[in-house]
Amino acid sequence: MKTVLISIGAALILGALLLLATGADPLTAYQAIVSGAFGPDGFADTLAYVVPVAGMATALAIPLRAGMVNLGGDGQLVLGAISAISVGLATGSGILALIAGVAAGGAYAALAALCENKFGVPLLISTLLLSYPAMSLASYLVRFPLKDEGSSLPQTPQLPETARLPELIGLGVVLAVGIAYTVIDARTPIGFETRVIGWNARFAEYAGINRPRLTMTLLAFSGGTAGLVGAMVAMGFPYRFIDGALITPQYTWIGLLAALLARANPLGTLAAAVFFAALTSGGFAMERATQVPRELTAILQAVLILFLAATSGLLRKRGARV
């Protein structure tokens, strides 16, 4: 906790120096971020942003707890979304749509685990490269077979009323997933095995832990969670899949930053996701108040992780375990 607070403080100081260099008042900028994220005009936007960011942070923290990095969140997210929309349009069932999203994301992530277990392709490579076919497939589907004929945009028709998902339900699902992850991590054999591999992979192998089996399980859960997030976002307003809409906000990247900041701790990951979501959402208010580009918040996020890595050696240790 001390290391995280030091990293946040150092990043805020560096951000203040950058703001001063642009001629802006750091206090005004930071106040604008806070008011823009949690004020009456911006809280709803922050809450809507928290759902996908916290969901993706949890999804990526699951294998990261064992020192396994899943970089295929975008592909799993998009595949889960387009699968949910397809099933929702065909059946009108929100439950079946969510199940389809989870199944699609989980199966696709398990394919990356299979590539490592059977062919020796590192997860860093297999998860990342498998994202591109998934995104291309979704783009093809939304532009041709599933395209809304009444629109010039690459988007699907709107879901029927019975298959739509209110935002508050999505928030509740994300919290439930976070709580389940916390309980599994702390109270079950698979949670213990995951933490042991994260501490020392070689010792875990000597202790008889089946790493290939655990890799498959963790990636399936990770991908399934990412697919669930994609399904919930697509089933929320505007109740359709729009090509590129899930990739542009960088939910996967911000979620990975949150998981890294919390060292994949379940509750810490949720807290870090809220922090990053508020920072991103408040960046729009900062831009209006100070004329400083909101991209500064992305710089703060990256610098924060760099300070964390420098003070804790997290990335070096994770790389050695992988």
TrEMBL record:
Lineage, top ranks: Bacteria, Bacillati, Actinomycetota, Actinomycetes, Pseudonocardiales
UniProt keyword annotations, A-Z: Cell membrane, Membrane, Transmembrane, Transmembrane helix
Superkingdom, natural source: Bacteria
Topology of this chain in the membrane: Multi-pass membrane protein
Transmembrane segments: 47-66, 78-111, 123-144, 165-184, 218-239, 251-278, 298-315
Coarse class of the protein's main subcellular location: membrane
Protein name: ABC transporter permease
Record localization: Cell membrane
Keyword Transmembrane: yes
Database matches in Pfam families: BPD_transp_2 (PF02653)
